[in-house]
């Protein structure tokens, strides 16, 4: 190795370490998984493999779970496990970076180190990698395993060991996700061509046998065995894949093939657009390279040409599988399924780098642009499909037209995207890279904003998790009602299955819990006619979860975790607010009743204008003794006063001046009594131009609360 090559290698390692740190920093703000069932499915399978008693068997595949399972052995709480998952995701992308460098150097052995460095940087900064590091998704694992299998293939001339390792790794991709079949098809095509050129039919046979055995072992041994261990007797696992009967019925419908064809076109265009045309450039380069050397029968050049076939076949197969699977359910109204990227993107990491190096080597840009325009026009004017509904941004993290124009539709995005790709391809390389970087940043910012929105509204562990951790030892039974939830967040059971992985968290009927479980009972259904020795002790209108406990356990419980949360609680189980809606107003609700406030960062802020910061919500309320709890902070309480009225302001129930001391403490309280039932009850906070106050929430609770 020359001094220049050694220096270039060190520089790439430094860049890889920098990128690893960047991935970690992008993930750090996200303190837990989103509500998505696949994220929780991977985490709970890993917990089960780590020895936890988990009741959450799903049809999501378990290969990624095998990789992260050691985290559940090393750490005993969900916070450390989650940080470990994010760190491991970043580590796999770091490994993919180093492997792609070796692959790229093989394709372009005489290329200047600066060109290699630039290509790797563009590939590594693809927005999906930065966004998905913060999720417990399979993408990092697929990217790494795919790059590893490709690299091992470049070494097969050193012996059968590399064939076996490459085949085992590519077979393991199927364990991670069903789209691993695409990588297997690519491997078969490459080993077949290699055997045909070099007479190494034993290599092709070994690859075929190993990959088939890997698929069969997962499908008929590992997956059903793990799910059986994660499913209590008498219960069924959750499933999201299409069942055999419905699949066969769908395959004979003409509408399926129409949807499949147009989804294949739109998803191919979406991948081309998301990659700034680099995947298309790589396809041209790899295809022409293979065609040029079809007569080669041996040597490294032959291996690399065939490796290009592996890349192309895998990418095409992944696009086809994605379009087919998303066409099986004709009634799904989701925008993202037409521009879905999460099935094909894990197989394009090396192609992004190859595409950048080859894009400025004289390939036919005009032909690529013409093909893209034809496909876009055909889709826009030929599909005649009304595309609408929810758009799951995590599946299109790198689709920059959506990040720039979120209010537009799919046809507009594809049209703008194809035009943008053609402009990027014809720009001078440095300008094109700068533009691609700008679009990547836009995608990343949009993606993390969407992720923050999910976590703030759905997924962060609520007070119930802390309540359980503070009151019950590990492995204690925590029961969840086995009836399907009809209120609140249906995803909450998914999240609890992860957050409580070190507890015996499982489904129970009420009677089974009462007889066999030593912990609490959680339900998103109202329970009536409770036994005299069971009380409802807490409940949340947001999650829809009610908490029940046996009388003998209630006196031992500490309710501090519910303080300043959206859970209403009572150690005696006698409060009416546990049976009807209690008054809880977070900042976003208070903003609906604000005269002079501004909503920012989940808080309602005073802005230097005198008036009513909030008022309302004008509800009917029963007579009794109550307490107002307001969560707030700030630097100046001057002019701030809290009061409550009813009957359109006719009755004044209390007036309280807010103090700076309360701002520092973060809470203010006032108790009062309603002598009779009232209507149009409201709580008001007045501020003046000197007030500097931020309000998080307001609660009205019966005075009987501890």
Describe what is shown at a glance.
It is built from 25 helices and 17 strands. It is α+β, with helices and mostly antiparallel strands.
What features would you describe in this structure?
- The structure is a single chain.
- This protein is an alpha+beta fold.
- Strands 2-1-3-5-4-6 form a six-stranded mixed β-sheet. Strands 7, 8, 9, 12, 15 and 17 form a six-stranded antiparallel β-sheet that branches.
- Helix 21 (492-499) links the parallel strand 1 (477-481) and strand 2 (504-508).
- The model has no long low-confidence stretch (mean pLDDT 88).
List keywords for this structure.
about 700 residues, six-stranded mixed beta sheet, alpha+beta, globular, about 50% helix
- Biggest β-sheet: strands ordered side by side in the sheet: 2-1-3-5-4-6
Count of β-strands:
17
**Class by SSE composition:** alpha+beta
In terms of DSSP E residues, the strand content is 5-15%
Measure the end-to-end span: 74 Å
The number of helical elements comes to 25
**Whole-angstrom Rg:** 29 Å
Biggest sheet record:
6 strands, mixed
Helical residue percent band: 40-55%
Looking at the structure, what is the overall shape? globular
Task: List low-pLDDT spans.
Answer: none
* Mean pLDDT across residues: 88
Helix and strand layout, with pairings?
Elements: H1 3-27, H2 37-49, H3 63-74, H4 78-107, H5 113-124, H6 127-132, H7 139-153, H8 160-176, H9 180-198, H10 201-229, H11 244-251, H12 254-274, H13 278-292, H14 300-325, H15 349-359, H16 365-382, H17 400-404, H18 410-426, H19 429-459, H20 463-471, E1 477-481, H21 492-499, E2 504-508, H22 510-516, E3 521-523, E4 534-540, E5 546-550, H23 551-554, E6 567-569, E7 583-586, H24 587-590, E8 597-600, E9 603-606, E10 611-614, E11 617-621, E12 624-636, E13 641-646, E14 651-657, H25 660-665, E15 667-674, E16 678-687, E17 692-702
Parallel strand pairs: 1-2, 1-3
Antiparallel strand pairs: 3-5, 4-5, 4-6, 7-17, 8-9, 9-17, 10-16, 11-16, 12-15, 12-17, 13-14, 13-16
């Amino acid at each position: 190795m020359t001094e220049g090559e050694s220096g270039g290698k060190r520089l790439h390692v430094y860049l890889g370490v920098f990128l690893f740190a960047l991935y970690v920093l992008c993930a750090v703000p996200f303190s837990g998984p989103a509500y998505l069932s696949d994220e929780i499915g991977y985490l709970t399978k890993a917990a089960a493999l780590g020895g936890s008693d988990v009741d959450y068997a799903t049809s999501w595949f378990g290969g990624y779970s095998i990789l992260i399972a050691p985290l559940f052995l090393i750490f005993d709480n969900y916070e450390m496990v989650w940080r470990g998952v994010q760190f491991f995701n970043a580590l796999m992308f770091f490994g993919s970076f180093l492997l792609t460098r070796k692959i790229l150097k093989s394709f372009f052995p005489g290329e200047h180190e600066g060109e290699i460095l630039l290509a790797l940087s563009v590939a590594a900064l693809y927005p999906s990698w930065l966004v998905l590091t913060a999720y417990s998704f399979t993408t990092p694992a697929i990217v790494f395993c795919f790059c590893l299998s490709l690299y091992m293939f470049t070494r097969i001339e050193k012996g059968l060991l590399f064939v076996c390792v490459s085949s085992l790794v590519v077979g393991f991709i199927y364990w991670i996700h069903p789209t691993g079949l695409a990588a297997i098809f690519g491997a078969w095509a490459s080993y077949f061509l290699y055997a045909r050129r070099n007479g190494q039919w034993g290599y092709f046979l070994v690859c075929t046998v190993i990959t088939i055995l890997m698929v069969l072992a997962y499908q008929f041994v590992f997956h059903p065995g793990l799910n059986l261990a994660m499913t209590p007797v008498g219960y069924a696992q959750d499933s999201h894949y299409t069942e055999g009967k419905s699949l066969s019925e769908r395959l004979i419908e003409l509408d399926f093939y129409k949807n499949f064809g147009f989804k294949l076109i739109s998803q191919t265009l979406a991948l081309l657009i998301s990659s700034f045309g680099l995947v298309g450039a790589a396809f041209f380069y790899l295809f022409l390279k293979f065609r040029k050397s079809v007569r080669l029968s041996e040597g490294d050049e032959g291996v690399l040409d065939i490796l290009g076939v592996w890349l192309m076949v895998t990418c095409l197969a992944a696009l086809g599988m994605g379009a087919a699977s998303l066409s099986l359910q004709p009634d799904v109204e989701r925008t993202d399924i037409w521009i879905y990227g999460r099935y094909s993107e894990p197989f394009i990491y090396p192609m992004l780098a190859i595409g950048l190096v080859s894009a400025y080597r004289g390939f036919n840009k005009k032909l690529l642009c013409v093909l893209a325009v034809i496909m876009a026009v055909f889709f826009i004017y030929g599909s005649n499909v009304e595309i609408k509904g929810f758009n799951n941004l995590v599946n299109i993290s790198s689709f920059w037209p959506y990040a720039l124009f979120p209010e537009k539709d799919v046809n507009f995005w594809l049209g703008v995207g194809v035009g943008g790709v053609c402009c990027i391809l014809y720009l001078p390389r440095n300008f094109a890279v700068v533009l691609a970087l700008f679009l990547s940043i836009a995608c990343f910012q949009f993606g993390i904003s969407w992720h923050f929105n999910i976590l703030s509204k759905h997924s962060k562990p609520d007070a119930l998790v802390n309540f359980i951790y503070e009151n019950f030892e590990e492995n204690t039974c925590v029961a969840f009602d086995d009836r399907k939830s009809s209120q609140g967040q249906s995803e909450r059971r998914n999240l609890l299955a992860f957050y409580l992985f070190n507890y015996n968290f499982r489904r129970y009927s009420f009677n089974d819990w009462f007889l066999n479980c030593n912990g609490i009972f959680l339900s998103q259904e109202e329970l009536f006619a409770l036994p005299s020795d069971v009380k409802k002790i807490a409940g949340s209108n947001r999650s829809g979860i009610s908490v029940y406990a046996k009388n003998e356990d209630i006196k031992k419980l500490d309710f501090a975790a519910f303080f300043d949360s959206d859970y209403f609680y009572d150690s005696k189980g006698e409060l009416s607010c546990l049976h009807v809606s209690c008054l809880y107003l977070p900042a976003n609700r208070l903003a609906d009743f604000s005269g002079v406030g501004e909503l920012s960062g989940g808080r309602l802020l005073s802005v230097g204008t005198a008036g009513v910061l909030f008022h309302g919500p004008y509800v009917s309320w029963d007579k009794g003794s109550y307490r107002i709890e307001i969560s707030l902070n700030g630097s100046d309480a001057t002019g701030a006063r809290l009061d409550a009225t009813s009957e359109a302001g006719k009755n004044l129930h209390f007036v309280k001046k807010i103090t700076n001391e309360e701002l520092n403490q973060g809470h203010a309280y006032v108790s009062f009594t309603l002598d009779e039932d009232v209507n149009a009850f409201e709580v008001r906070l007045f501020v003046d131009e000197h007030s500097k106050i931020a309000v998080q929430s307001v609660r009205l609770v019966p005075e009987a609360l501890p």
